[in-house]
Design brief:
Helix content: 40-55%
Strand order of the largest sheet: 3-2-1-6-5-4
Number of strands: 11
Structural class: alpha+beta
Strand content: 15-25%
CATH architecture of the largest domain: 2-Layer Sandwich
Number of domains: 3
Shape: elongated
Order of helices and strands: HHHEEHEHEEEHEEHEEEHHH
CATH superfamily of the largest domain: GAF domain
């Protein structure tokens, strides 16, 4: 772990644009840096949410670095316009978090300037500052040091530290904090990518569930429409929609009665086999888009053996029969629609050719009588009020 941290973190720190050169950290500071880096590195693999991770690291940094008396970690918003407080130490930090504290990028605050300029900013003594002042809840603070958290020249956050003592941060503290900021940046960037991936996954799952729910609702409506369409189609049929075929005599007779076996096959949507009155009865539903539109039944000898796979064959035949009947129904409906459209066009042409209101009304009444097979047709123009006024 130590060799990994030295080779990756310290090398990145060396290549990062720095303010004026500072003395190197001492061996003790380096050891402290390694311990903090190890804690940051190991915490990433616990898959904490970003706020929990940032709060844990903020409290750890304050414990390990005595010069820090208050510490904050900001994350830049998605639009890049605001730095949002996501972790802070102490009672004051808790209050700021509860208020969902944030500052404008490029504003007068230290964090806002650091986020915009992408450079560290050290204020050794607020008493000497005319522009920068700490938050009212941090009025007793005298020193502030803020570091941008950068990934490929893009600021993703700011590490902000305070002390009540003027000039509290030594050159070693500053070097140490810069190195910690590099490691913290890598960890936060990794967590943000993980959070985005998880959020995208949740959104996709929610979209998938919504799509499945919509498909189920469409399927349910299709079933209802299919059932209603078939009920209307059968109601309008003049030909028999039921038959019984005697294979011994070849005689076909209309028989609309539903046997218990047919009822059961239609109700359970599956092949039903029973032995009754010395006969084996096999019934299966006729389906269209999973909607039962009928059923058929076969009578066999009680001791006859059904070949393997014959029931599956029967189910397939029932589905194919359903599709054939559905095709016929759609064809008949299309023919009726064509006939209705032709009748409407004929009536319209006849009415257009009529002269005078009374002739139009007579022809309309005659056409409606023919279409509805009505014995009498009454037509009134205007409203009852118009009629009363006219009589007066």
């Amino acid at each position: 772990m130590d060799s990994w941290f030295r080779s990756n973190v310290l090398s990145r720190l060396a290549g990062r644009k720095q303010p004026p050169e500072q003395p190197a950290a001492s061996t003790a500071d380096t050891n402290e840096l390694i311990r903090i880096g190890q804690e940051i590195y190991s915490s990433q693999f616990e898959r904490l949410d970003l706020e929990t991770f940032a709060q844990r690291i903020a409290e750890s940094l304050q414990r390990h670095l005595p010069a820090i008396e208050h510490l904050q970690i900001y994350i830049i918003s998605g639009d890049g316009q605001r730095a949002v407080l996501r972790a802070a130490t102490g009672a004051v930090g808790q209050k700021l978090l509860e208020r969902e504290y944030q500052v404008d990028v490029g504003g007068l605050s230290v964090v806002g300037r650091v986020a915009l300029n992408r450079h560290d900013l050290l204020l050794p003594d607020f008493a000497q500052e005319q522009i920068h002042k700490p938050h009212a809840l941090l009025a007793d603070m005298r020193t502030e040091f803020a570091i941008p958290l950068m990934v490929n020249d893009r600021v993703i956050g700011v590490l902000d530290t305070y002390s009540t003592r003027p000039g509290a941060f030594s050159a070693g503290d500053i070097t140490l904090l810069r190195a910690v900021a590099v490691q913290l940046t890598m960890a936060l960037d990794s967590l943000q990518l993980y959070d985005e991936a998880q959020r995208s996954l949740r959104e996709n799952q929610a979209l998938f569930q919504q799509t499945q729910s919509n498909l189920r609702e469409i399927e349910r409506l299709n079933y209802q429409l299919t059932g209603r369409a078939w009920s209307e189609y059968l109601r309008l049929q003049s030909d028999s929609t039921a038959m019984m075929l005697d294979l011994d005599s070849g005689q076909i007779t209309p028989d609309a009665e539903w046997t218990p076996t047919l009822h059961e096959a239609a109700a359970h949507r599956q092949v039903i086999t029973i032995i009754q009155d010395g006969e084996r009865r096999v019934a299966l539903p006729i389906t269209v888009r999973n909607e039962v539109i009928g059923a058929m039944e076969f009578e066999l000898d009680a001791d006859s053996t059904l070949p393997e796979g014959v029931l599956e064959l029967c189910e397939a035949v029932g589905q194919r029969l359903g599709l054939a009947m559905e095709t016929r129904r759609l064809f008949d409906e299309t023919q009726r629609a064509v006939q209705r459209e032709g009748l409407i066009n004929d009536i319209n042409s006849d009415l257009q050719a009529a002269t005078g209101v009374d002739v139009i009304l007579q022809r309309a009444a005659q056409h409606l009588s023919d279409a509805l097979n009505a014995r009498q047709v009454s037509i009134r123009l205007g409203t009852p009020a118009d009629n009363a006024q006219r009589k007066a």
